[in-house]
Amino acid sequence: MRPRVFCGIAAAVALFATACSGGGDGGGDAAGGGGSTQQAGAGGAFPVKVADCAGKETSVKQAPQRIVTSDAAGLEMLLQLGAGDRVIGTGFPPGKGSLPAALADRGAKVPVLGDTLIPKEKLLGSGADLYVDTFGPMPGMGAAGAGPSEEELKAVGIQHVLLLSTACATGPKAAQGPRTDLAAVEDDVRRLGAVTGTAARAEELVGAMEKQITDVKNATAGVPEAQRPGYFLFDFDAGTKQPMAVCGKQVANAVITLAGAHNVFADCDADFRPVSWEDVVAKNPDWIQLAVRNRGSEEANRKAFDEAEAFLKGFPATQGLKAVQEGHLLRIGSEVTTIAGTRTADTVRQIAAALHPALVKNGQ
């Protein structure tokens, strides 16, 4: 994980990892989270095969009963799947107000094993039988980012499942080219559904995502590629001295593309990359998303959005941008745009409704 990102928005949710695990040493050891998921039936039959980022398979022989999540992304997915009562701990806990209201009470009851990364010893001693990991190894975090080895997890009976869409977004085995759909996110939902025996619920969640996305794609299908507006996600919490661009391999690039826009930094071959304000000015986006993390209340969120907008309007390098001059500044939180989860489909519709109001109605 890059230190600059960790100090910004990822300090809240830590989903901006850049590497993925190659898995363990085969046999019955821990499962990585990329690749395929094989399930014996929608009812949650076992064993279930899952593959790591390198395609190496292992088997989950029975539904886990004591789950630890590395952060709020995996936790939210498990809550959505109805497996939240089996989560015994998390790292990077969800901030107040960041979970959907229907999940907030249950999410708040999950013990916090680490305000950021879960210490290695605490994870190994947690009594978990499954670790849902958004990150994979994070060399940029030094020894703390290495985490337990596959051998150490296996020794204490913890199976290991990575979220493909984030942990495997970059690296030697990552998909080539920009990410333009949410297939990897949907695969994560299905994978966790298969592993936890909630496959039927996973299909319901994925079906709802796909319906929203299909509706938006059909509505905007007539907009020529050349007429799709340029879009810049302003990661306000990563700092204003040097902007952090969302690149082609990040989940947000798919969200922006599906919404009928063009990410002005889609061509950088990474998930995130520091750029300069001169680079942003040269792109001169038609729309800018004021991406701030949830502060825990509507008032606090409004203040953060106000601060982000005031910066763009007052900073000499940005006050002349087309999006700033025309007031095309969208107030949409970071979490629902850059984090793997079912709510990314909602964000697709929200962005599309703002950019193409004659074609897409938000919430309908």
SSE topology string: HHEEEEHEHEHEHHEHHHEEHEEHEHHEHH
Please state the average pLDDT score: 86
Going across the biggest sheet, name each strand in turn: 6-5-4-7-8
Q: How much of the polypeptide forms β-strand, as a percent range?
A: 5-15%
By CATH, the topology of the largest domain is Rossmann fold
Describe it for me?
This protein is α/β, with parallel strands linked by helices and 364 residues long. It has helices at 3-7, 10-13, 72-81, 101-108, 120-124, 143-146, 150-155, 164-167, 183-196, 199-220, 251-258, 277-283, 298-314, 322-325, 335-338, 343-355; strands at 37-38, 48-51, 57-60, 67-69, 87-91, 112-114, 130-133, 159-162, 230-235, 244-246, 262-263, 272-274, 287-291, 329-330. A 5-stranded parallel sheet has the order 6-5-4-7-8. Strand 4 (67-69), helix 3 and strand 5 form a beta-alpha-beta unit. Helix 9 runs antiparallel to helix 10 (199-220), helix 10 (199-220) packs parallel to helix 16 (343-355) and helix 11 crosses helix 16 (343-355).
Question: Features of this protein?
Answer:
single chain, 364 residues, alpha/beta, Rossmann fold, 2 domains, five-stranded parallel β-sheet, four-stranded parallel β-sheet, 16 helices
Summarize the topology.
Blueprint: H1 3-7, H2 10-13, E1 37-38, E2 48-51, E3 57-60, E4 67-69, H3 72-81, E5 87-91, H4 101-108, E6 112-114, H5 120-124, E7 130-133, H6 143-146, H7 150-155, E8 159-162, H8 164-167, H9 183-196, H10 199-220, E9 230-235, E10 244-246, H11 251-258, E11 262-263, E12 272-274, H12 277-283, E13 287-291, H13 298-314, H14 322-325, E14 329-330, H15 335-338, H16 343-355
Parallel strand pairs: 4-5, 4-7, 5-6, 7-8, 9-11, 9-13, 13-14
Antiparallel strand pairs: 1-2, 2-3, 10-12
Helix pairs in contact: 9-10, 10-16, 11-16
